[in-house]
Amino acid sequence: MSVEEAPWKTTTEEESANPQRGFDEKSGFDPETGIYHSLVKLGEQKQIPSRPDLDTATFVLSQFPDSHKSESQIALIDAATNQHVTYAQLHRSIRSLASGLYHALGVRKGDVVFVLSPNSLLYPTICLAVFSVGAVLTTANPLNTQAEIAKQVRDSGAKLAISAPAELHKLVPTGVPTVLTSGKSSNDGLLSIEELIECCDDPLELPQISRAQSDTAAILYSSGTTGTSKGVILTHANFISLVTLLQWSVEVTSSEKDVFLCFIPMFHIYGLAFFALGLFCSGVTTVLMQKFELQIMLDAIQAHKISNIPAVPPVILGLVKYARKEGSDLSCLRRVGSGAAPLSKEVADRFRERFPWVELRQGYGLTESTGAATFFASGREAKARPDSSGVLLPSFCAKVVDTETGKGLPPYRKGELWLKSPTIMKGYLGNVEATTATIDSDGWLKTGDLCYFDEDGYVYIVDRIKELIKHNGYQVAPAELEAILLSHPTILDAAVIPLEDEEAGQIPKAYVVKAAGSELTEDQVIQFVADQVAPYKKVRRVAFTSAIPRSAAGKILRKELVSQRKQQLISKL
Predict the structure, then answer these.
(1) What are phi and psi for residue 235, nearest 5 degrees?
(2) Could you state a single Gene Ontology molecular function term (predicted)?
(3) Smallest Cα–Cα separation from 496: which of 455, 448, 532, 545?
(4) Best CA proximity match to 337, nearest among 323, 328, 348
């Protein structure tokens, strides 16, 4: 069933965005309110559903291909085993698992289900089955420590855990009842999701469960790149809005014949939104990798004729530096998206130079906005503005706020990006102070990102406001310096942090990963950057390291580098 045929009321586009039309038709900026409006239309046939009792699983499943087509249409392929899952098989697995969760395990509406697993063919089934019974999903990175997992289990109030067998030992100390993702019950005496699906092959019907779009659907923990990780409360309305926007964007930029590659972790909002929910609404095929490995990715692209890859900047950098050396044939590739972290203009330019037939498009979003905010409709537009993150998605409004005066700024003026849309989170779990500091009384999400709009409504993310380096009263953006460093032929990765300085306040310090065999020196790195920036932006210190700490989504964990620096100082004392 298509969105326009669904038996629920939909909002009009003016209701989703803003009925006032007193803004500039070119930039979307309204000088009276200081608000930027999205200039992109969903169209009359595609609107965000507003039926109040609709839930995410019901909506996503309603978008699957019709019964005849779903039996043959491939939804998922495991890159490692080549196992195929059709849309019909996926639908049956979701119904069976939902029945098992409800009738066999007693999972009820509002119960929190904790999922600790890498990507797998079962991951989307688990997510949609949890939503089907009205339970709340919370996901975690399998690389998290036992202490980090215990904290999230406790903070989220999880009643049940679903774990990959290899991660089970991290959950045992929490005492939370646990089901394995795979295996037989003889393994530690624990039931598995695979067994639940098999035993409920002829599933009992679920009772009528009262639902509301305003109900909590998931609690996803932000990466905590600049502070403590917080539980982001996302509602069914948030996910339904996001999935509708994603479905629409796929329709205007891709086709059902596209084959997508998934190595983005599904425990992250980027992977969850795209691969566990959104792409199923467009009937496309996704090839699934358990985790990212460059050679496995290159092999999968060739073997499955991958045409579309939602990626992150480190992967794009890897393609630039290594793909051609491996002699891989990437001629089938048509589109590569970049999100979750800033993609530098230098890396983007080098990617387009190496792969001129591939559309490279950057987008922007946060966990707090259900992973969405901006996009590029075409590769041509993205190429014309390589350092932009695109335009506001339909239903989005934005402000660029002067952090000192609180006023909304016009095009080309830098300030903090504020967002408003149906995808904005409900708040932070159990943290009223953080919620009120992040969402104002009018519903504006304060992103903490420094940005500006141009005269055509394109957004440019400069850096995290909290990460700006204050040097002699000037603001230095680490992301700008990192982009320059990455343009050096023998620098594989880089990060820049502030270093306290008695005279200047702070100075930029670079951590650099250099290529094997490189004899690059600190002085050469300093001079390389100095030749390309104003004097106040120069890197003043350089440390060579084996790896840059990054989150699962590719964000640089600068706070870890700062912490390492402080520990080094303490040890010297």
Answers:
(1) -95, 170
(2) ATP binding
(3) 545
(4) 348
Alpha helices, DSSP H only, in 498-545? 522-530
- List residues bridging with 302 in a β-sheet: none
Please tell me the distance from the alpha carbon of residue 98 to that of residue 137, in angstroms, as a whole number.
13
- And the tokens for 280? 């199923």
Mean pLDDT of 208-233: 81
Return d(Cα 281, Cα 321) in angstroms, integer: 34
CA contacts within 13 A on the Cβ side of 264: 30
CA distance to 229, 234, 247, 464, per residue, from 241 (Å): 25, 11, 10, 26
Q: Is 298 helix (H, G, I), strand (E, B) or coil?
A: helix
Amino acid at 463: D
Confidence of residue 208 (pLDDT cuts 50, 70, 90): confident
Backbone angles phi, psi at 141, to 5 degrees: -75, 125
| CA atoms of 567 and 151, how far apart (whole Å) | 24
Question: Quick check: 179 pLDDT over 90?
Answer: yes
d(CA 108, CA 272): 22
Task: List, in sequence order, every residue forming a beta bridge with 138; answer none if it has no partner.
Answer: 114
How distant, in Å, are the alpha carbons of 62, 64, 93 from that of 2?
Answer: 7, 9, 22
pLDDT for the residue 169:
93
What 3-state DSSP class applies to 87?
A: helix
Measured in residues, the chain has a length of 573
Q: Is 449 exposed, middle or buried (0-12, 13-18, 19+ CB in 10 A)?
A: buried
**Exposure letters 53-68 (e unless 16+ CB within 10 A, then b):** ebbbbbbbbbbbbeee
Q: Are 534 and 514 in contact (CB under 8 A)?
A: no
Q: Which amino acid is at 416?
A: E
How many Å apart are CA 260 and CA 321, to the nearest integer? 22
Nearest to 273 by CA among 239, 299, 309: 239
Alpha-carbon distance 101 to 196, whole Å?
8
Domains by residue range for the chain, with CATH: 1-51+388-467 (2.30.38.10), 87-235 (3.40.50.980), 470-572 (3.30.300.30)
Phi-psi bin for 495: left (phi > 0), alpha (psi -120 to 50), beta? Answer: beta
pTM over 0.85: no
